[in-house]
């Protein structure tokens, strides 16, 4: 098994994905196999952090006491430049179709990807 690249899930300011060398399938969230063809141990790479907003939802009620300080906050689905879709936080003014770029911000005690409009 290849060595995992540290990303935001491990406190590093990066987004990683896997690209299968057998079939070319791109997947987000690490798996020990390709979800398309079953090939084992697809290699990981760091994403550019660029993408386009696919969907957006403004959260106006805190789900937990830890998230209360962040309300209202925007949850996005972002189609990333590398070909995968991910859920992340983002600026409240973002709309479907906006070109965005990721940074990383603390949210309820955890570092999370945070997208803003690309300038």
TrEMBL record:
Signal peptide: none annotated. InterPro entries: ChsH2_C, ChsH2_Znr, NA-bd_OB-fold, Thioester_dehydratase-like. Residues 46-104 form the ChsH2 C-terminal OB-fold domain. This is Putative OB-fold protein. Residues 12-41 form the ChsH2 rubredoxin-like zinc ribbon domain. It comes from the Bacteria. The lineage of its organism: Bacteria, Pseudomonadati, Pseudomonadota, Alphaproteobacteria, Hyphomicrobiales. SUPFAM superfamilies: Nucleic acid-binding proteins (SSF50249).
């Amino acid at each position: 098994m290849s060595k995992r690249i540290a990303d935001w899930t491990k406190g590093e300011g990066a987004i990683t994905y896997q690209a299968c060398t057998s079939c070319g399938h791109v997947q987000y969230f690490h798996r020990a196999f390709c979800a398309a063809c079953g090939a084992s141990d697809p290699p990981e790479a760091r994403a550019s952090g660029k993408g386009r907003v696919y969907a957006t939802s403004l959260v106006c009620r805190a789900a937990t006491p830890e998230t209360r300080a962040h309300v209202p906050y925007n949850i996005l689905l972002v189609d990333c430049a590398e070909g995968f879709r991910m859920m992340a936080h983002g600026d409240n003014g973002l709309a479907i179709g906006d070109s965005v770029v990721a940074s990383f911000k603390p949210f309820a005690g955890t570092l999370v990807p945070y997208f803003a409009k690309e300038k």
